[in-house]
Amino acid sequence: MDRQTSNTIKDLNHEEIRSVCLQWRSHVLHPWVLNALDKKAKGHEVKIIIEGASVKLIPELFKSENPLNGLWKKNLEAGLVEGICRACSNKLGTLEAAKKQGLTLLDDMSGHPAMAAYHDNGFEIITF
Fold first, then answer.
1. CB burial readout 71-95, b (16+ within 10 A) else e
2. Residue 116, phi-psi category: left (phi > 0), alpha (psi -120 to 50), beta (remainder)
3. Looking at residue 32, what is its pLDDT?
4. How is residue 99 annotated by DSSP?
5. pTM above 0.85, yes or no
6. DSSP secondary-structure letter at 123?
7. Contacts of 13 (CB under 8 A, 6+ apart)
8. Which residue of 20, 25, 60, 121 has the lowest C-beta tally within 10 Å?
9. Where are the domains of the chain?
10. Residue 38 and residue 24: Cα distance in Å, rounded?
11. How many other CB atoms are found less than 10 A from the CB of residue 66?
């Protein structure tokens, strides 16, 4: 873990930071779904933004045989998934799967989700 990442995690343990926006760009899911549920359980407002290569995981996450399906469902049921990037899901071929699953398509910045509004509303933005 680099120094900047370590400082960000340390800063998130302070009580004054109560809102977290997890921008999920990686194809690795497991830490995301666990961290989101953990932060929610500790009283933080959490929003997951799915963007970049991570949108390719959407069709797989809804398959019951996927080992992460249960954690993914818990995040959905808890209302933690803010939405998915419209431009990335369109480009990477998962737009229809996102629509079929009822995910919100985020496109307020030239087809991509803009982070400025989350920052302006007090969210700490963490990108994985």
1. bbeebbeeebbbbbbbbbbbeeebb
2. alpha
3. 79
4. H
5. no
6. P
7. none
8. 121
9. 27-127
10. 16
11. 15
Per-residue pLDDT reduced to its tens digit, 54-111: 899 999 999 999 988 999 999 999 999 999 999 999 999 999 999 999 999 999 999 9
- Side-chain-side CA neighbours of residue 85 (13 Å): 25
Spell 111-123 as b/e; 16+ CB within 10 A means b: ebbebeebeeeeb
Using one digit for the tens of pLDDT, what is the confidence trace for 7-39?
333 344 444 456 766 665 655 666 778 889 999
Distance of alpha carbon 113 from alpha carbon 123, whole angstroms: 14
